[in-house]
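Hi P.,

Sorry for the delay on this. The queue was packed all week, but I finally got your sequence through. Input first:
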Amino acid sequence: MEHGKHVFRIVILVAVILVVVILGRGLLIPKTYGLYGRYRAANVAEQMNARPVLHAGAAACAECHSELAAKRTAGGHRNVSCEICHAPLGAHVLADGSVVKPPIDRSFTLCARCHRKMAARPARFPQVDLDQHVNGPVEGKVCLQCHDPHSPKP
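Then the structure:
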């Protein structure tokens, strides 16, 4: 048993390393890390408090624009939020309560983001081959000439 003291030293060394790792992990890794996945869960609340709220949803838009909201909910875009096309509510109603005209993209590229014909999209989704649909080059406000974006059927 002459090697017994060497084995005892290795066991002590492993125990010390284990204690250092456990204590170090407890001191260096935040308490909320891993609570909801591989990130620090408290970061979500910190980011919410650090950034202004910009998006409010279609219900907030309907408070002032009830006619357009009713038209949208009855039409083909009922599942599309107003803020997808009209920019976030925070760009329209400012923090001080003043109202400014929101930026609106009226070009065909806005419609084409969702409706351009692509093989990967489901067949039941309304897709358009823009060049054939317009019978010529696609440019400008071509979609708005025939379609009301709040109720897009021609």
